[in-house]
Structure formats: structure tokens, C-alpha cells
Design goal:
The chain is mainly β. 0% of the residues lie in helices and 48% in strands. The protein is built from no helices and eleven strands. The strands form two sheets. Strands 2, 4, 5, 6, 9, 10 and 11 form a seven-stranded mixed β-sheet that branches. Strands 1-3-8-7 form a four-stranded antiparallel β-sheet, with no helix packed on it. The mean pLDDT is 96.
Length: 126
């Protein structure tokens, strides 16, 4: 089973940018559709973006479409999330997740993803 570790979180002012990275070990990411989710205090885990196993297709939540970009490098076993024009409401713990090669990258249901990282904190100040 793949192990995932997120990095790149931090504190940024509104309007700023951050780049999150998810590094995999134990298996090649070519075997997985990937997603990014986030969870704010007191709220349910929320889908942010997904990417197909070969990077050919991406999908975004309406709340981040046009501001965030998901990408992957299967040779490096990494999946990144570039976050621009950040807003205070983007504050959350961000998680990367791996699912099967079956279009799951468009699923907003966390239960469709079998492997998760430990999360990285993103805080956006106003």
C-alpha cells in the first residue's frame, strides 16, 4: 500500500500563494488516481482537486477552480497543489489521497480514496 507525506503548508496573507507537495513511497503513483482534500476545524473533510493516474485529466471544486492547480510527476512519485490568490476561507489542514485507476479523481467522497497522508496545515490571514 502506498504511503503519502504532505509538505509545504504554512502561514500566508490573503492574496498570497503556497505550493503543497505530496510524496509517495511503497508503491508507484502510476497505479493511482490522486486527490487533495482539506478539513477546517469543526467541518467535514472537503474535496479540493483531483488528477487522473497519468495526469491527463484534472477536476476542481468550484471554490478553488481558477485559483488552484493540481499536477503530478509520476517519475518523482509526487503530486503538487499550487494555490494562488489564497483566501482566509482556504484555511484548513490539507490532505493528499490515493484511489484506484477508475476515475475516482472526480469523486468528492473521501471514502473512495484508500490511502491518506497525515496532512499539512495552511493558514491564510486577512
Amino acid at each position: 500500500q502506498v504511503q503519502l507525506v504532505e509538505s509545504g503548508g504554512g502561514l500566508v496573507q490573503a492574496g498570497g500563494s503556497l505550493r503543497l507537495s505530496c510524496t509517495a513511497s511503497g508503491s508507484t503513483l502510476r497505479n493511482y488516481d490522486m486527490g487533495w482534500f482539506r478539513q477546517a476545524p469543526g467541518k467535514a473533510r472537503e474535496y479540493v482537486a483531483g488528477i487522473s493516474w497519468n495526469g491527463g485529466h484534472t477536476y476542481y471544486a468550484d471554490s478553488v477552480d481558477g485559483r488552484f492547480t493540481i499536477s503530478r510527476d509520476n517519475a518523482k512519485n509526487t503530486v503538487d497543489l499550487q494555490m494562488n490568490r489564497l483566501k482566509p476561507e482556504d484555511t484548513a489542514v490539507y490532505y493528499c489521497a490515493a484511489g484506484g485507476i477508475n476515475g475516482v479523481f472526480t469523486s468528492t467522497n473521501p471514502r473512495d480514496f484508500g490511502s491518506w497522508g497525515q496532512g499539512t496545515q495552511v493558514a491564510v490571514s486577512s
